[in-house]
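Researcher: Go.
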Amino acid sequence: MKKFFSYTNQNQNKKRYLRATIESSVLFVLVSAYYWGTRTAAADFHYDVSFNTLKKKFSGEAILFDEDPIGTNSFPGHPLAGSYYYLIARNHNLSRIESFLWSFALASIHEFFY
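Model: Structure:
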């Protein structure tokens, strides 16, 4: 009878990178769709989407200071998205350092590619 009420999962400490990737991707797509759909920061759309623009971003030529509204840069914008990325990684048993790097990587991808 005791075994019936106790729940043990042998894989509860296993790191689940694929599930974290899927959940983070869904959130990433939702955030990006909102960003591209509302176009609240007009200066972000001065460059077209191309490899030439990406080259300019990595060389520093196309990087500009953020002109996002205060609601995007403060709560609930960037901090909320970053904390979601971090918590998704932690929920799937990634360490604190791995979760930090996870959220940092996703934020960097968002800044450079979207």
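Model: Residues 17-38 form the longest helix (22 residues).
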